Amino acid sequence: MENAPLSPLEQRIIAHLHVIYPNLDHKELAQKCLTTFQLDPATESPRPHRNLWDQSDIMLITYADTLRRKEEAPLETLHQFVKSTLSDCISAVHLLPFFPYSSDDGFSVMDYTTVNPSCGRWANIVNLSKDFKVMGDLVINHCSSRSLWFENYKAGVDPGSRFFYEADPNTDLSAVVRPRTSPLLREVQTKNGTKHVWCTFSHDQIDLNFENPDVLLEFLRIIHLYLEKGIRWFRLDAVAFLWKIPGTSCINLPQTHEMIRLLRLLIEHYAPEAVIITETNIPNQENLTYFGNANEAHLIYNFSLPPLLINSLVTGNCRHLKQWLMSMTPAQQGTTYLNFIASHDGIGLRPTEGLLTEWELETLINTMKRFGGKISSRTTPQGEAKPYEINISLWNALSGSAQQGPDQWQFARFLCAAGVMMALEGVPAFYIHSLFGTENDVERVDNTGQFRSINRHIWDMEDLEHVLNTPTHHQKVFQSVTKLIQIRRAQSAFHPNATQYVLHMGENLFAFWRQSLDRRQSLFAVYNMTDQPQSFNLSELNLIATDDWTDLVSEHVYHDHLGKVTLMPYQFVWLANKRGTIKKDT
């Protein structure tokens, strides 16, 4: 058996390991990977370039405990709310880290194998996965300084004694790209003397050392556990920083890409319906590399969309948004984008690099400050503090214009933003607070001292149910956005991989054309991005003369294909030649 031929799966694993760990016994490590993952070497490979999604897929992003009801596990409260209220809107739920943690609202994980008791139990995750696709965070770059692993590291025992990345403080690390302003290295007293550990994000988040293959094997055990508990979508958190080589930027290194390919290979052989999403909040062209050759991430976050879309809506000029969209090549079959406008983090500014000028960026930042936003910074390789993200709720971010400040168009602007996100190539993802129009939580910022808390409000279910059942802006947002989602889910032209072309209609109207994969449905999405009425002629859209065209939003039918259309401030139309019907298998 020692000389038995290797299976195709074994050969592929070994090829990846050879790149990552050139000096190890690749065959032995490949066997350890298969054994740890409980994977038969003879497992057949899934067919490549499969689209594991369609137009009915909409994701909800939420913390496990965003919704709370007295004497009920928050995970149970969330499940009941999504099942009873959003089952015709949502197909997937991204549960932000639900593990015991020491800081960063979950992203400083103390134990990857346990559900935080204050949120619920693994049974809650399993039950949720029976009704919805569940995406879990694999916080793979770092873990908590209060984890058992780090305690073992300090004591010099396993598991953990060699789990963390160390560096000599005298080494020139000025080229390292950082998303924070804190010192990169933290001095730690260990059984083996004073050490300096690498901390990309904070001194409570110690970077793991994937140069040690035992760290890889530990994470394979963790991933396998998640698969057993029903998680099928995996968000690789902060993965761009995974591999370190002093003297380089330590971001987007070849070993990082190879590690993603290896993880995907193993995961999709265990569960062919599984999906990998990389969280890489970096400049746009760097972000696109995480598709690989359709062999890395199935989905990548469209990180440039939030700042560019918000900038367009508050300035009334969509030039940069349009130019960016034109530069985005269609994703290969089997890959697509994850579109979002708001998240648990802020509005990332690195993805605007090369897209907005310094003056435009400063104008955007000052506008968001005017609307109650906070600004988080990072340290550049030159040691300068530079704005990294804007912390603000989406509702407040769209409360007015850069020229006039807060105005009467907040709701229309908010709905327009949702309408753009839902129509673009890719899978839409709604942060839960964007369904309610939740305002800036200034009190939470004061309590935590963290700017990101401004958009991490905790809703008491009695309060939420009250505002959703009475005439409030929360009710208006919820009803309007969920109705728009239901319309969107029925249109084959909104398939994440359907054809998309940007239309040239000036700097005030943002427009593009989508066509279904079977070519039967065409849809023109046209948005007024300003606080003034804007008009256009239907002749500019090149409508097929033999078809009737209906605006799916207003249900108005356009019989005159050469007529003029006037859009009120932030109004938009989804003009379609056919009306789709919702699939019922989600």
TrEMBL record:
Keyword Chaperone: no
Presence of the UniProt keyword Transferase in the record: yes
Signal peptide start-end: none
Pfam families: Alpha-amylase
A GO biological-process term: carbohydrate metabolic process
SUPFAM superfamilies, per the entry: (Trans)glycosidases (SSF51445)
Residue positions binding substrate: 104, 142, 235-237, 344-345, 452
MF annotations from Gene Ontology: glycosyltransferase activity
All copies of domain Glycosyl hydrolase family 13 catalytic, residue ranges: 57-488
Alphabetic keyword roster: Glycosyltransferase, Transferase
UniProt xrefs under CDD domains: AmyAc_Sucrose_phosphorylase-like_1 (cd11356)
Protein known as: Alpha-amylase
Taxonomic lineage of the native organism: Bacteria, Pseudomonadati, Pseudomonadota, Gammaproteobacteria, Oceanospirillales
